[in-house]
């Protein structure tokens, strides 16, 4: 199973992903993908101790059409923004995973 | 409205200063998250799915125009231009930055607001009837008692570390618009044989994963004993409530495990032992607080207005609004207007900063500077002259707030669900949106009549699904959103917990399932006067089950 490591930035709560250099990015596309996230989580723990981020954890991701995306709906929404407000969150800034989630409507209901 | 005295102002200002210091130390790394978390929760600040979330108390749902404008300002300056009104009559901002929260709290304090005790294991914001003080059927305004309870419970040293959160609601009319029987303590204002006002006291109601309707422990509690009796209940709970398992820590579980007789005996014994006189609520103090809530001088006016009547005759949208969003006032010639935050296809309870400003202006111009937040996630203008109804309607319509659906099937309660909430297991808002698009606010919704749909995105039941006539609970099963339907719940004076009707439905199928339920009701009701709830209570679940599971090919059986 492949994972990325995520957390919330302490100062503003924004969702961030750990990149290859061990820094934190708001952009899911910059997240480092690990077969084993243990070392990355340990590194994240140092950033918790340094009061940079809070609540880090590993998110399972999978390849969809050649792009990684979170497997669980909860994590897809967290990495994207509210499905009912496409103008808010990472999706509004072009920072969401490419296989984004959709808000179903009565006229165009999209199955997830 | 209540106005802060010097003590209140100093107390709230001191708390802002404390939290500013705590945030500073957290950002500087002097406090760990474990050390800081209780402090931020005590100030209503959660960490949610996308960001922090700040829950601001609106005591008993009453706001001035100035306060609403401040909320709009904060939404623009510190958040993303909108806020979310909740089933606890509070307001939540979904995107505040931790570094800004002390400034937000200082701005709130400047208009006599705060976020204290909107989270944590303490006595939460006390809720009340959103028609308090203006309802035609009211015995007494519940807000003075809610305010007295607020003052008594704020930072109460004995009750700041309860086994779990504790919710109190006060209702002043025979018709319960406050869902008192789903609260830890529900207070119903009643009159005894001597004509004195007091309270029927309910204890142990609650929703969440283990729903219970409250039990009445007192038919009549004299007004003077309100605090002493509340203290006795809290003491028994604080001592005997479980602290080993947070899911079994509410007073409803204590009641369930101990039994109502034993719990009532323990409360009465504590009440007697302490001596009611030690915490007697003086009549003068009640009168002093009640004076803040005295109604504005309203000269009786003609009950109807020719222009309004002509408009009703020729403008069907206005006529629909008048029929569903305008309620009789206790003073002739005035009306209570519901500002629906349930636009068809919209997000229940959300209001933009511009909409907040518009409602604040309307409150100032037409409603004696006052408005209310309802637990049904709408806003209320409580003092509108009948003569002004058309003008108020036109201004609401100009900002998208004149949806004529109060109390109808599209006036849906929905929690934020998985779109925002870290605890949610499924989305709530998209289901509400699709249901409101399906049923609308026109002829079909009006033919269906009063019907309350309530949706929660997890078993914590913030969307009150257990007391929805039709309740929807979103769950996750094998990675998919699944929706369980309950029928026959009610949050009024004849409260009941809805019954699970059968296996859940997929996101695709749940709207069709609700439609099947509604169609079954329409086919089986004894005429339009029999509401959905009445019909369900007469018919029982069988015809609905049969319609859902024997004929609905879309059901995931």
Give a short overview.
In chain A, 16% of the residues lie in helices and 27% in strands. Chain A is α+β, with helices and mostly antiparallel strands.
Task: Write structural notes for this entry.
- The complex is a heterodimer of chains A (112) and B (557).
- Chain A is of the alpha+beta class.
- Chain A is built from two helices and five strands, in the order E-E-E-H-E-E-H.
- Chain A has helices at residues 38-49, 73-78; strands at 2-9, 15-18, 24-25, 53-64, 67-70.
- Chain A has a five-stranded antiparallel beta sheet.
- Chain A is globular, with a radius of gyration of 14 Å.
- The two termini of chain A are 21 Å apart.
- Chain B is α+β, with helices and mostly antiparallel strands and 557 residues long.
- Chain B has 18 helices and 21 strands.
- In chain B, the strands form four sheets. In chain B, strands 16, 17, 18, 19, 20 and 21 form a six-stranded mixed beta sheet that branches. A five-stranded antiparallel beta sheet of chain B has the order 1-2-5-4-13. A five-stranded antiparallel beta sheet of chain B has the order 3-14-15-12-11.
- In chain B, helix 1 (6-27) runs antiparallel to helix 4 and helix 10 (306-314) packs across helix 11 (316-325).
- Chain B is globular and about 60 Å long.
- The model of chain B has no long low-confidence stretch (mean pLDDT 96).
- Classes of the chains: A alpha+beta (112), B alpha+beta (557).
- At the A-B interface, helix 2 of A face helix 14 and helix 16 of B.
